[in-house]
Amino acid sequence: xxxxxxxxxxxxxxxxxxxxxxxxxxxxxxxxxxxxxxxxxxxxxxxxxxxxxxxxxxxxxxxxxxxxxxxxxxxxxxxxxxxxxxxxxxxxxxxxxxxxxxxxxxxxxxxxxxxxxxxxxxxxxxxxxxxxxxxxxxxxxxxxxxxxxxxxxxxxxxxxxxxxxxxxxxxxxxxxxxxxxxxxxxxxxxxxxxxxxxxxxxxxxxxxxxxxxxxxxxxxxxxxxx
Length: 226
Ligand code: CMP
Prior knowledge:
Layout: H1 17-26, E1 28-32, E2 37-39, E3 47-53, E4 56-61, E5 67-73, E6 78-79, H2 81-86, E7 93-96, E8 100-106, H3 107-116, H4 118-144, H5 147-162, E9 164-165, E10 170-174, H6 178-185, H7 189-201, E11 205-208, E12 211-215, H8 216-225
Antiparallel strand pairs: 1-8, 2-7, 3-6, 3-8, 4-5, 4-7, 9-10, 10-12, 11-12
The structure holds adenosine-3',5'-cyclic-monophosphate.
The site of adenosine-3',5'-cyclic-monophosphate has 15 residues, from strand 5, helix 2 and helix 4.
């Protein structure tokens, strides 16, 4: 792999050519099919992973076998840093939701890269901080909000993260499946479908293929209700 290939990852965006070459020297690629597990929670872990292409879901399985989705990660995102930093087993299961191409870096190389590049270490810490904030918000939602509130917050976060503002008063977002949304907000697929249909009946959102169009006034309404 050419060193310039690595500049596309936000984590390595500030590196000079020499530093990129040292990353290229230790990185490998791995491919997975949709639904492959990259690793399971509680396994020991030796690699740091960056997503070149595709998407993964980071999940935990409850004692009753219910899947809880902690996060969806896409191109440019990384995962697998925790087990390398705290020498504990993998904290969650990571599964490909689409054909996946990863760049992987072994533990000792990853730790050396962090030790030598403060800009990379700071970005990793900033991302871990962002994930902790998200987790805190989820704990708050689960403890204090009803399902409608949690779905409203889910759409607000989705719109903020990846929404495309259109001229016609709508914000377009890519829709995870109703089952995935349910597993993210702690409810059943049926409840998510019912609430989404209620919102559609009120013309607050439109669903077309894999895109949801959220009316901007709906987002304002969600914001004022939370
Ligand atoms: P690790 O524990 O090595 O393996 C599972 C990975 O999932 C973990 O590193 C993180 O990269 C990622 N992960 C764990 N919990 C969360 C979370 N709450 N949000 C986003 N990513 C997470």
